[in-house]
Amino acid sequence: MSNLKKAYVAGGCFWGMEDLFRVRPGIKDTEVIYIGGDNEQPTYRNHPGHAEGIELTYDPQETSYALILDYFFRVHDPTTVNRQGNDRGSSYRSTIFYQDEEEKRIAEEMIDVVNKSERWNGPVVTTLEPFTVAWPAEEAHQDYLVKNPGGYTCHFERFGPFV
C-alpha cells in the first residue's frame, strides 16, 4: 500500500523545474501543470492568472516537504517578482501552493531560513497560495527537456542545502 503525497510549486518555466525535480531522492512522479488562475481547462495559449507549476508526487519515507522546498529555493530565483531568466509575467511567479496549515507553516519557516541565509541578493518574494485545483499542461510540455535535450531552461542548482 502506497503512502505517497503531493506537493505543488511554481518557480518560472515548468520545464526546467520538472527536469531537476524528476531525479531528486523520494520524488516518484512529476507533472507540469497550470495552477492558481482564473479559468478551467487552461492551455498554454489561454491560462490567465495561472502559474506554470509542477505537481510533485513523493514518498514521505524518502524525503520531506521541507526538503522539497529547500531544493525549490535552490533551483530558481525566489527574489524576482513574476520573472525567471528571460521569462516574464505572472505565469512565471514564485509560489508555493499549500494544501493545509502544516504545509503553510513549513513554507513560512523555509522562507525565513532562506532569508536569514542571505545567499540571495534580496528578500524572498515567493507567495503562499492555498491549493485549489491543478490542471495538467498539454502532453507536449510534459517531460519536455527529456524529449528535447538542450531545450531552454533557466533553472539550475545555485547553492547547497539551506537546512
TrEMBL record:
GO molecular function: peptide-methionine (S)-S-oxide reductase activity
Taxonomic superkingdom: Bacteria
InterPro entries linked to this entry: Met_Sox_Rdtase_MsrA_dom, Met_Sox_Rdtase_MsrA_sf
E.C. designation(s): 1.8.4.11
Substrates-to-products reaction catalysed: L-methionyl-[protein] + [thioredoxin]-disulfide + H2O = L-methionyl-(S)-S-oxide-[protein] + [thioredoxin]-dithiol; [thioredoxin]-disulfide + L-methionine + H2O = L-methionine (S)-S-oxide + [thioredoxin]-dithiol
Chain ranges of the Peptide methionine sulphoxide reductase MsrA domain: 6-154
Record: active site: C13
Keyword line: Oxidoreductase
Oxidoreductase keyword on record: yes
Purpose: Has an important function as a repair enzyme for proteins that have been inactivated by oxidation. Catalyzes the reversible oxidation-reduction of methionine sulfoxide in proteins to methionine.
Record-stated family: Belongs to the MsrA Met sulfoxide reductase family.
Name the UniProt record assigns to this protein: Peptide methionine sulfoxide reductase MsrA
Provenance organism: Neolewinella maritima
Lineage: Bacteria, Pseudomonadati, Bacteroidota, Saprospiria, Saprospirales
